Amino acid sequence: MKYQICCDGIMRRDFLKVGALAGAGFALPDYYEASNAGASKGKAKSAIYIRLAGGPSHMDSFDMKPDAPDTHRGEFKEISTNIPGTRISEHLPKMAKCADKYSILRGVSHSLAAHRLGSEYLMTGNRPLPSLKYPTFGAVISKELESSTEIPRSVAIPKGPTAPTGFLGLEFGPLETGASPKAGEPMDIRGLSLSNGLTLEDIDRRNDLVKRYDTAFGEFANEDKILSGMDEFSQKAYQMMRSDRTRKAFDLTKESPGISSMFGDGSFSQSCLLATRLIESGVRLVSIQLGGWDTHRDNFSQLKDNNLPNLDDGISGLLNALTAKNLLETTSVFVTGEFGRTPKINPRG
User: Fold this and answer.
1) Of 74, 88, 195, 217, which is least surrounded by CB within 10 A?
2) pTM attached to this predicted model
């Protein structure tokens, strides 16, 4: 998947509200706190966060303005969905057929008109400060929620945000795949996949050697938070590498033909397929990045020919596959960009 650089360099429906309100300072940790206090009890045990990096045009996707003047609406037509009264872009036909599986939250905004700051605000629920790096909700989930030691709590496809753990520590960062999956191929994950003739016995011997050094020099590492975090991260990687359950979760060739057929062959759609397998295996949060939404030039062609069809394939497949696996009621899916577009169309999109 090609990523474009931006110009400035538990219930399912509840989670959509929470995610959008992150830009207003109400993030996932706040939701869990309210839930624990008895304010709201959801069914969600895991979550999938899909970031549309670059600022997707809401007026050309899920918030069409057919009655607005020409200066304030795009060239796309709207279509009906399987929910009466809900209409979306004509270039999202598959999502129109499964609109009963998601909610659209409109009208939430913030004042940070910069991609990096907007993304940081959204993913942490805190207004960015130069003096403090807040943890993303993925890091908070990794710290607060229990999961199997052989399965990562959080996985980022293909990568997570810069400094995702903030002040919490490296050990709460996501496992990054480093690349997007390809249709019909197992994922080769650095640090998890055996390569260059390595065997599990080789890995065991290396781990034993590391433990000996830790015994001899561990007191020095314990005094350093970075070294301590790296050590814990390494042990988690070792446990996952030895786990058949983890390796199978990343292997798309193990998926049934019926589920696989719900997805397109594109890298984003295959990333969504991988997300369903990871959630099924016990991962608490999967984040996926789909770039290319900073459409200052040739907005309508980019959306029509690339962005919206890719989104349509991936999200519809994701929701339908989660339903087929009986996971949708316990999985919150959150799709958003860091902001949208200005109401008035201009030469720069």
Assistant:
1) 195
2) 0.78
Hey, what amino acid is at 165?
T
With beta carbons less than 8 A apart as the criterion, state whether 285 and 45 touch. Answer: no
H-only helix segments in 60-127: 93-96, 115-124
Q: Is 280 helix (H, G, I), strand (E, B) or coil?
A: helix
Q: Write the single-letter amino acid at 233.
A: F
- Per residue in 174-221, pLDDT (tens digit) is 989 988 999 988 787 766 665 666 655 656 566 566 666 566 555 555
Q: Exposed, middle or buried, 282 (CB in 10 Å: 0-12/13-18/19+)?
A: middle
List of long-range contacts for 250-255, beta carbons under 8 Å, 24+ apart: 250/177, 250/186, 250/187, 250/189, 250/192, 250/274, 250/277, 250/278, 251/186, 251/187, 252/181, 252/183, 252/184, 252/185, 252/186, 252/187, 252/277, 253/184, 253/185, 253/186
Cis peptide before 158 (omega within 30 of 0): yes
pLDDT digits (tens, 9 = 90+) for 122-145: 888 888 888 888 999 889 988 888
List C-alpha distances in Å: 268 to 2, 106, 345.
10, 24, 28
Question: What pLDDT is attached to residue 28?
Answer: 53
Helix (H, G, I), strand (E, B) or coil at 333: strand
Q: So where are the chain's domains?
A: 12-185+258-336, 190-249
Which range among 121-135, 138-152, 278-292, 307-321 shows the weakest confidence by mean pLDDT?
138-152
Phi, psi (5° rounding) for residue 333? -115, 130
